[in-house]
Amino acid sequence: MAKFELKLPKMGESVAEATITNWLKEVGDTIEEDEAVLEIATDKVDSEVPSEVDGVLVEKLFGPDDVVQVGQTIAIIETEGEIENTSGATSASEQTTETSANVAAVEETVSQAKATASNEDYNDSDRFYSPLVKNIAKEENISFEELESVKGTGKDGRVTKDDILAYVKNRGEQQAKPATQSPASASQKAAPKPAATPISVNGEDEIIEMSRMGKMISHHMVNSVQTSAHVQSFIEVDVTKIWNWRNKVKNEFAKREGEKLTFTPIFMEAVAKAIKDFPLINISVDGDKIIKRKNINLGMAAALPDGNLIVPVIKNADQLNLVGLAKKVNDLATRARAGKLKPDDTQGGTYTVTNVGTFGSIMGTPIINQPQVGILALGAIRKVPAVIETPDGDFIGIRYKMFLSHSYDHRVVNGALGGQFVQRVAQYLESFDVDQTV
């Protein structure tokens, strides 16, 4: 018999940790190779961790809601025969001894965290705190107000383990500062967050628990509104050429490529071109600094069967032609609906496009997907009467039109840039080459 350490697999270059949401196997259960053992979640994607071997689950080192680092051992599986240790030529007995020590260390850490935890409640915050960060805060008796003041360096300003440990290390110096403050500076402290307004519930009302993803989306949206100064620009676009061209080529495209040709890749192509013309749309804000992104990674908001939204990312969208964009859009949309996205599929976005027209809306005011500074909403395409200008004069005709709604961060994107960008997207769409082949 041998012991195999099941580790949290690498899930993408930008994913360093995941939260365990559910164990699919219990201690004593038989597991086959490639069979899912547990479910995990990153900021936006749920995934399964499969077993790499056949065997029996003998140890679970973490429980639900625990945050685990990539490469960290999460379970022990007992197998028949010998297993090559990935860390070197270690005997089975040595491996077992090392594993037992690891298990003991983890159990001791967890028990210490529980024993020293204070009664402080961090659940009223609009920020997301991982269970690990909360445990460290409780161990160090950090108050809710203190934790809210810790600057996060993680995604969307999230407080990471390193952030909270750095705060604890320098806490003595930070706590000494209020004593030297003048009464004037002390009075300038931010007022505490007001308590939530009580909501009355009667016997006929139904109380529905928010899903984990729903809670995360809620936190992200509130955080975005509190972070960015949102402002919008709107423009109407004549997409008659695109409408007619797509109808002409979509059947041939489907036969040749085995893919549907939707409007989305056409819009994504125009957005990528406009970003190349206005690269200061493709930025993020870090305090008083602006980070100008080299790659153009377009997020495309996709609706899930449960009503939530997820934003998979088309990496280096400006380097793909229309066929490549169509294949990528279809792949991401299909896997999003099936719950098969990988954590890295939703990471690294630099600008987002959302199609509110899918639900019949002609325009919208979308909330920026942090840490980006802009998001474009595509309205429904409508057949409308319009004035058509020709060398022989103006006349009324039937055209296909839609609205583009651009929300942008007014801290760093002024009205001229925000308006010129969405105008350039419109120009690319209206000048679409109907003679091209795909």
UniProtKB/TrEMBL annotation:
Which major enzyme category is it? transferase
What Gene3D superfamilies does the record tag this protein with? 2.40.50.100, Chloramphenicol acetyltransferase-like domain (3.30.559.10), E3-binding domain (4.10.320.10)
| Stretches with biased composition (Low complexity) | 175-198
Superkingdom classification of source: Bacteria
Cofactor(s) the protein requires to work: (R)-lipoate
The protein's matches in InterPro entries, at most eight in alphabetical order, are given as: 2-oxoA_DH_lipoyl-BS, 2-oxoacid_DH_actylTfrase, 2-oxoacid_DH_E2_comp, Biotin_lipoyl, CAT-like_dom_sf, E3-bd_dom_sf, PSBD, Single_hybrid_motif
Q: What is its EC number?
A: 2.3.1.-
Keywords in alphabetical order: Acyltransferase, Lipoyl, Pyruvate, Transferase
Q: Does the keyword Acyltransferase apply?
A: yes
Region annotated Disordered sits at 172-203
- Domain Peripheral subunit-binding (PSBD) span(s) in chain numbering: 128-168
UniProt record similarity statement: Belongs to the 2-oxoacid dehydrogenase family.
- Which proteins does it associate with, and in what oligomeric form? Forms a 24-polypeptide structural core with octahedral symmetry.
The name this protein carries in UniProt is Dihydrolipoamide acetyltransferase component of pyruvate dehydrogenase complex
Source species: Mesonia mobilis
Lineage, opening ranks:
Bacteria, Pseudomonadati, Bacteroidota, Flavobacteriia, Flavobacteriales
Q: Its gene?
A: bfmBB
